[in-house]
Task: inverse folding
């Protein structure tokens, strides 16, 4: 099998290194050698494992080459990459991609195009790096009804939350983000990682696979981690939780919850122990119970390994071209709005430290039918106090109404922090 690697960045380098280092093993397991026919990129690689191969800056030219069997798209973005993949599929060449944004936003049309031209579009590397979660959902759990998926699927956000949670250390979001950038765990522009967009792209793909739905990135509710403060980690510990940024896809009757948000996760839960830049995905199904996968979610080796695994699958594929397309129900399920979903909520409220304030807060919550599971009060400077509480499960819309009313109370100072409990 001869391939064109399009994109000479971190993942392209990782693919070339794996193909070189493990050539004999790959040939044994896949049944044939995988050779790099050409590297296509805007800039020629000057060193590393991609150096020495035939190079072109004309990306579209590789789709017309008779000596290229498979296009490996590792460019990123949703414009040039989309045009390249469309051209490749129309030329009758299968594609392997690590592009989660492209699959999440345009995947349905691309899968239809692949089926039309009787070729394959593989995308294991698009979600969670080395974790074979796509294969788990499509193959290992093919006979099970999925009830829900919850995952830590962005390593940058997980690293930041892990460091901020360090007991005995009070570190701001900005300070930890700067450290993540210095270590190479966060991009110079980390927006997609910290605002939840990257995780939402991945969740879109997982939810579509799990529940046989179209890819609906625009209907995923997204919350980032920039508003979480050091005091939230202190109260989380006191209540028996850790704070994690989760992507959650959940079947609720004839509807779906599809959301990315920070959560309080019980310290006894398996996801609470996934720290640093690791990813972890938990799948609950009727037949298999809870299935957990964890590993490195990004990087040259982990993501490159997923690309190579897809290349091996292409050679020994038994289901035939076009079988990679997501199965889609004729009548898609409704995706619930955030206010229609139910959970427990952590609220942190700064108030004036005077008699009757606690009673006023609990009265407002009671008026909205909100009962409390846990509550703490802590004195602060300047005659202020912090009230932290965890509610029993309640509709998010009801909590939002109660919070809006509390923020109008003359004893409540500033915005109330609100975080879901998983």
Result:
């Amino acid at each position: 099998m001869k391939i064109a690697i399009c994109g000479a960045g971190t993942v392209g380098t990782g693919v070339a290194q794996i193909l070189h280092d493990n050539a004999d093993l790959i040939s044994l397991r896949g049944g044939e050698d995988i050779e790099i026919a050409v590297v296509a990129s805007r800039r020629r690689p000057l060193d590393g494992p991609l150096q020495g191969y035939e190079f072109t800056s004309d990306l579209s030219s590789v789709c017309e080459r008779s000596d290229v069997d498979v296009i490996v798209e590792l460019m990123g973005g949703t414009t040039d990459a989309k045009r390249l993949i469309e051209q490749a599929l129309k030329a009758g060449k299968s594609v392997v991609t690590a592009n989660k944004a492209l699959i999440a936003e345009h995947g349905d049309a691309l899968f239809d195009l692949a089926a039309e031209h009787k070729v394959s579009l593989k995308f294991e590397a698009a979600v969670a790096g080395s974790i074979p979660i796509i294969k788990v959902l499509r193959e290992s759990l093919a006979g099970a009804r999925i009830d829900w998926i919850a995952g830590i699927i962005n390593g940058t956000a997980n690293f930041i939350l892990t460091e901020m949670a360090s007991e005995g250390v009070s570190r701001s979001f900005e300070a930890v983000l700067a450290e993540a950038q210095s270590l190479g765990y966060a991009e110079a522009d980390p927006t997609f990682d910290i605002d939840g967009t990257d995780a939402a792209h991945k969740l879109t793909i997982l939810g579509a696979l799990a529940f046989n739905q179209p890819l609906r990135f625009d209907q995923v509710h997204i919350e980032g981690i920039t508003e979480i403060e050091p005091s939230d980690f202190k109260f989380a510990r006191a209540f028996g939780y850790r704070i994690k940024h989760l992507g959650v896809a959940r079947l609720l009757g004839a509807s779906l919850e599809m959301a990315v948000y920070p959560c309080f996760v019980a310290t006894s839960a398996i996801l609470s122990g996934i720290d640093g830049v690791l990813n972890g995905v938990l799948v609950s199904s009727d037949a298999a119970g809870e299935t957990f996968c964890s590993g490195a979610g990004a990087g040259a080796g982990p993501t490159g390994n997923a690309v190579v695994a897809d290349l091996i699958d292409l050679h020994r594929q038994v289901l035939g071209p076009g079988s990679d397309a997501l199965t889609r129900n004729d009548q898609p399920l409704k995706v619930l709005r955030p206010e229609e979903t139910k959970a427990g909520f952590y609220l942190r409220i700064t108030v004036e430290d005077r008699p009757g304030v606690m009673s006023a807060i609990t009265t407002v919550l009671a008026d909205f039918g909100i009962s409390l599971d846990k509550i703490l009060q802590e004195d602060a400077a300047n005659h202020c106090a912090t009230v932290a509480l965890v509610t029993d499960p309640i509709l998010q819309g009801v909590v939002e109404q109660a919070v809006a009313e509390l923020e109008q109370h003359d004893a409540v100072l500033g915005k109330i922090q609100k975080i879901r409990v998983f």
Notes: Residues 338-421 form a domain with the Alpha-Beta Plaits fold (CATH 3.30.70.260). The chain has three domains: 2-129, 137-296, 338-421. The radius of gyration is 24 Å. The longest strand covers residues 241-252.
